[in-house]
Each structure stands twice: as structure tokens, then as C-alpha cells.
Amino acid sequence: GTVPAGLSGNPQGNTTLGIRAGLAATTGLANVIIGTDAGKALGATKFSTFVGFEAGFSSTTGSFNTAIGAKSLYTQQITGSSGGSTAIGYATLFYQNGQTNAQNVALGYAAASAITTGTLNTILGSLAGSQAVSNDKTVIIGSFAQASSTTTDNEIVIGASATGHGANIAVIGDTNITAWHPADDNGVDLGSATYS
Asked: What DSSP letter does each residue of 146-168 carry, written as one string?
């Protein structure tokens, strides 16, 4: 695209479509920005894709990000040169802000919408991980599934409405699950004296 009148820099190889899409591009490189106000604050962002109304709205720096869906990666303000996050769905990773190499993956309506400084998370499902804030290395799969707290690291939570039990613990299913079946008898040790 072309540089709007009055802007400095030399953005190159960007594709923009939509009202105010990529409006503030300065040195941005090889971005695809589609949708009204998508990537509006683009700045020096590189190799990123923002598709949808206000997708990547506040992204000024950071690279290698993909946001597909209205308001996905909305607040993104990566402090370094890289982000590497993928947000697919309305308001996914809405508040992600401030970490170099965040590398979060979120898929689903408002999935991981509250994460600010958390990194290396994988969160899938409608409203999954929507209460996580600074969690790192967490896997949450299932609609409404949540981590045990807003700061817990290295937690695995699988199942609709399942809730984590803390760092370094995997939870499968919510309170409605009555049994877990291994492939054969005595094939699994739960590794906990607290839960049976």
C-alpha cells in the first residue's frame, strides 16, 4: 500500500483494505491488513496478518502475529521485535500486551481474552482461558475451561468447563466426569494421594 500523506518512514510490501486499515504504517514490512481500523496503529510491525474489524488495532511493533476476527489481538503492544502469536475468533488475546516472543495461540470466541503478559500458552474453545492474565506455558482446551488462577504456569486443563488445580498439574474433565479409562487395567497411576 501507499504511505498516507504526512507519515514518515518507508513501509514496504504491505497489503491494506478497509477504512483506516494500517493507517499509521511507518516502517512496517510485509503485513496483510484487512478490515475497518485493522492494524490502525501499525508502526513498525512486520510479517503480520490482521483480518477483521479492529483486529490488531493497537499493534505498533512486534512481528509474526496473526489475528483473524474482530478485535482479536486488539491491545497488542509487544516491547521487542517479535510476538509470534496467533489469535482466531472475536476478541481472542484481546489484552495481550508487553512481552517479546509471547507466542500465544488462542482459538475461539474471546479465548484468552484477558491475557496481558502471559507467554507460550495454547488455549482453544469459546471463552476458554478467559480469566488467565500472566500465565505461562499453559494448555487449556474446551469451552469455558479455565486455569486455576490468573498467574499459574505450566498447567493443563482439558474439557468443557474444566478448571485447573495448579502449576504442573493436568486436569481432564469437569465435575460431571465420573471415570477416566486407560487402555488397559492398571495402566495409569494418577500420581496423587489427594485425588482418587
From this structure: B-SSSS--S-EEESTT-B--STT
